[in-house]
Amino acid sequence: MTPSRELTITSPANPRLKALLALRRRRTREETGQTVVEGYEELALALEADVRPRTLFVCEELFSPAGRAGSQDIGHQSDLLARVRETGVEVVHLSRGAYEKVAYREGADGLLALVDQVGMPLSSLPVDRPDFLGLLAQGVEKPGNLGAMLRTADAVRVDAVVAADPVTDWGNPNVVRASKGTVFALPVASATTDAVLAWAGANDVDLVVTTPETDRLHTEVDYTRRVAVVVGSEKHGVDERMLEAAAHRVRIPMRGKANSLNVSVSAAIVLYEAVRQRATR
Questions:
Q1: Where are the beta strands (DSSP E) in the chain?
Q2: Where in the chain is the domain with CATH 3.40.1280.10?
Q3: What backbone phi and psi angles, to 5 degrees, belong to 93?
Q4: Is 122-280 assigned to CATH 3.40.50.300?
Q5: H or E stretch including 271?
Q6: Which of 215, 203, 226, 205 lies closest to 274 in space, CA to CA?
Q7: Which of 24, 40, 241, 280 is buried most deeply by CB count within 10 Å?
Q8: CATH code of domain 6-116
Q9: d(Cα 52, Cα 50) in Å, to the nearest integer?
Q10: CB atoms inside a 10 Å sphere around CB 235
Q11: Keyword Transferase: yes or no (predicted)?
């Protein structure tokens, strides 16, 4: 195993740090094919998914002392650093000022990695299972909502997550953060709505589309065959193309004064109905 190359950066104006900051822009992420992932939990999950960082940036001054916080063990940053060193990945030590220049989250824990962009072509998604379960998100605007849906998708073990006409990309640091790193553990893809509909049709995947414009409740359809749950943008929901392609249009009952739920909550409710049905069939 080649020993990791290590160096130290103390100046916040260092060109390598400017390059990291540039990756906050989607255009730069797409041009370079790279993104950043920050935080112990997110990095640990990425490593478990066989993601090999290009570079690990660390500020050991920000590492937590080993111990417990409530029900959680903390202080494992040093362990993760040791694991990464064993792979020969370049390690860059940053002064606190330099690290805080590139950190994008509050309460930074001193770990940030440069990694390859996440995602695959639609044609590479695993759709061969007879009980395929997918999640399609059309035009979702907020990275936090997309990331939250990924956490649910991981929890219920969906086979793939697809963003149709996405407003953001899978490598957005806030998607990575909100997903707690599960974006690296799931097969994810992005494409136009037309391409997604063609893919679903070619693979015999029924679309269960959430919309308030229906009388059918989300509990009244069969999720035990090859299906994908579809949710739309926060402002407009799904468009007419998705509604026309739906095998089922479903709504979640609303008993209060609000007429809609957060899109990530809607996705979770319908996905767990699919899990319930599959567990009892």
A1: 6-9, 34-38, 55-58, 67-69, 72-74, 90-94, 111-116, 133-138, 160-164, 188-191, 206-210, 227-231, 248-250
A2: 122-280
A3: -85, 130
A4: no
A5: helix 263-280
A6: 226
A7: 40
A8: 3.30.1330.30
A9: 6
A10: 8
A11: yes
Residues constituting the chain: 281
CB 53 within 8 A of CB 114: yes
pLDDT tens sequence for the chain (281 residues):
555 688 999 999 999 999 999 999 999 999 999 999 999 989 999 999 999 999 999 999 998 766 445 445 555 888 889 888 888 899 999 999 999 999 988 888 899 999 999 999 999 999 999 999 999 999 999 999 999 999 999 999 999 999 999 999 999 999 999 999 999 999 999 999 999 999 999 999 999 999 998 999 999 999 999 999 999 998 889 999 999 999 999 999 988 877 778 999 999 999 999 999 999 87
Q: Are 63 and 75 within 8 A, CB to CB?
A: yes
Which residues make up the CATH 3.30.1330.30 domain(s) of the chain? 6-116
With CA atoms as reference, report the closest residue to 83 among 47, 112, 113: 47
Exposure letters 241-259 (e unless 16+ CB within 10 A, then b): ebbebbebbbbbeeeeeee
Amino acid at 263: V
Instruction: Match 């993760």 to its residue by tokens.
Output: 80
